[in-house]
Amino acid sequence: MVSSDLALPLDDLLNGLRAAGEATRVRLLALLAQSELTVKDATSILGQSQPRISRHLKLLTEAGLVQRFPEGSWVYYRLADNAQGGLVEALLSRLDVGDPVVERDRERLDAIKRAQAEAAAAYFRAHAESWDSLRTLHIAEDAVEAAMREAIGGERFGRMLDLGTGTGRVLELFSDLYESGLGVDTSHDMLRVARANMERAGMHSAQVRHGDIYSLPVAGQRFDVVTIHQVLHYLEDVPGAIAEAARALMPGGRLLVVDFAPHELEFLRTDHAHRRLGFSHEQMAGWLRAAGLELVSIRDLPPPADRPADAGDPLTVTLWLARDPQVASQTASETASHDGAESVSGTEIAAEPAKEVA
């Protein structure tokens, strides 16, 4: 029997079957089951023209099988997270993954992902020494760090994990609060800089380690606090990274995500290896809930009103604080204190339901 929440009215079922009933569209659905795609990605993988691919994706979107998410001049496509998406999963479960066409598409998708990862790694190598100064080009980092400290609070805790640790700055920021800290990064050049910074700062309770953010070299349910600071906009699979971060949290542990709000600064994509042009409140809240976390608060840090006219385009930084819900009822007072905080440098709102801040 099909679960009632996956059942479709007759017309929706027929529309979905009609939309999926074509070879290229089946191949697109199989690819989207593995990863989000842009039209450019799909064109490279399937070897078809951009107008043709766009037409197929339009039909799949109109049938509710696929969702589109504009980001600047790019549009990402992913499988719909609804009953129509359940229909796609049921159809794809009957597809032979060893089919030569399907297998070749998967190999080309893997090649594109490798190329994107290598481009990001090359960027990190080129900018490892000046990474912290690059971050300050967009928003005053001291204001962001003050908001991060306020979100976590002043009570000491046991273990901290910083994902995409870069130069190790976040480990240094919280070094007076944790008993032991671990930073993970894929860039050996970044880790070299981080180790030098930690040695210079006398941070003997922290270490850094090479590792993949999608498959962390740590045991599950081990860390009291996990941070992801200005990392997710470089990633292809943001939900996967959040799910892996959630896996590392102890019961009741907290995840602090810091990243840009939605913007349209294309040069960050072309010149600075950004894959995403920021994240909305709703988008991030959905990923956190899907990872089994309870959203505690959202805080926006807009650029100061008196910023110089020649300071470049404005960017807003957002902080999302989430918690493993297993002991949420034991810490209601702490949650309330986060939800009610105010600051002249930003706006904080209660997270349930998550709403956009004007």
Features:
alpha/beta; 8-stranded mixed β-sheet; elongated
How would you describe the overall organization of this protein?
- There is one protein chain.
- The chain is an alpha/beta fold and 358 residues long.
- 42% of the residues lie in helices and 20% in strands.
- It contains 14 helices and 10 strands.
- An 8-stranded mixed beta sheet has the order 5-4-3-6-7-9-8-10, sandwiched between helices. A two-stranded antiparallel ribbon has the order 1-2.
- A hairpin with a 2-residue loop joins strand 1 and strand 2 (74-79).
- The protein starts with 9 loop residues before the first helix and ends in an 8-residue tail after the last strand.
Classification by helices and strands: alpha/beta
Major beta sheet, specifics? 8 strands, mixed
- How many DSSP H or I helices? 14
Mean of residue pLDDT? 82
- Given the C-alpha coordinates, what overall shape results? elongated
Order of helices and strands: HHHHEEHHHHEHEHEEHEHHEEHE
- By DSSP, the count of extended strands is 10
Q: Residue ranges: pLDDT <50 for 5 or more in a row? A: 328-347, 349-358
Physical arrangement of strands within the biggest beta sheet:
5-4-3-6-7-9-8-10
The amount of helix comes to: 40-55%
* Rg calc: 22 Å
Q: State the separation between the terminal residues, measured CA to CA.
A: 45 Å
Strand content: 15-25%
